[in-house]
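Sample intake — ABC transporter permease
Collected from: Bacillus cereus TIAC219
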Amino acid sequence: MNEMMIDITFDLIYLLSSSLVVLLLFAFFVNGYVNKKVSVYRNEEK
């Protein structure tokens, strides 16, 4: 019973860490995309 709980806990930690990495990558790409859009928009205003 105890070993099963430990396995589930490790699975949850693994899922959380992998999803966090994916979220960080996603946020990084979105940030770069938005920055490009904003700089283009500002250049057009001048």
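Post-analysis note: The chain has a mean pLDDT of 92.
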